[in-house]
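hi! just following up on the protien thing from before. the input was this:
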Amino acid sequence: MGTRKKLKGTLVTGVIGEDTHSIGIRILDRTLTEAGFKVVSLGIQVTQEEFVDAAVETNADAILVSSLNGHAPIACLGLRDKCIETGLTDILLYLGGMLLMRDKSWEEVEKMFKDMGFNRIYPPSVLPPQVIKDLETDLEV
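and the predicted 3d structure came back as:
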């Protein structure tokens, strides 16, 4: 009998809103799984409600949202409130992708999403090992 690897946590991942970009989230899903996390992948065009429902159903530790089409400021607004309404008061919210808006600096973009309740926000240049490191730190695993 082989030894079973202890899971580091359960993560819900997906691409929010009408966004159909899937390559980045698929790479992230695979690397997170290989790093020892249970990944519940929702795919593309995921609504806020689908993220929250999946997190409740799986008792997830974090929701990782991807957005590459530039609509994250609209698509992500209110996600933290929906989490709180369903009892997910301590769930981690991570957001990454093409989040820069032409008239804003990265610092302004990051602050905007932190004000929306996201714990960590990543620019497109961040690679999966950094996300894994941050998850391990935040989940204390």
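Helices lie at 23-34, 48-58, 72-75, 79-85, 106-115, 128-138.
The chain has one domain: 10-138.
cheers
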